[in-house]
Amino acid sequence: MEWFRQLIGPDEGASALQLCFRVLPLLAFGILCVRIAGRRTFAHFSPLDIVVALIVGSNISRVMTGKAPFFPVLAATLALVVLHRLLAFVAMRWQWVAALVKSRPITLVEDGKVDARAMRRANLSDQDLAQGIRSEQIRDIDDVALATLESSGKLSVVPKRRR
Length: 163
What we know:
The chain is α+β, with helices and mostly antiparallel strands. The protein has helices at residues 2-8, 16-37, 39-43, 47-64, 70-93, 95-101, 116-121, 126-134, and strands spanning 106-110, 113-114, 144-149, 155-159.
């Protein structure tokens, strides 16, 4: 283990070459964390996912620059990622936990009618909604059966059926 400490340098005052060597185990550790946390963590951001991603990135950058001790920070980051995975598992089983750690979808349009209160709650303008609807190849709000701002932040649009 001493050879590894020589390679990555001390926690404070590591040389530029030693900091460069830190990239290899940190990259592997980052990939391991993403694999443990699951694809959902970094693909569909819920508030919990965003916090975990920020902390993981911050921790790895502090270790990379020698501003934090190598192994203790990696252990704490791994503990955070495992806790996140456990919370995701528990949230699948119990809705009250899911409500605490995830945001809920917001119905913005139903049968061509825009819900102004829901739009304010989602902090969306009419232009934002129009853009999201156009991105689904729908020209007019009257042609929308349902538009929902999902917990991931994506706008889901269901067009009305044409007769």
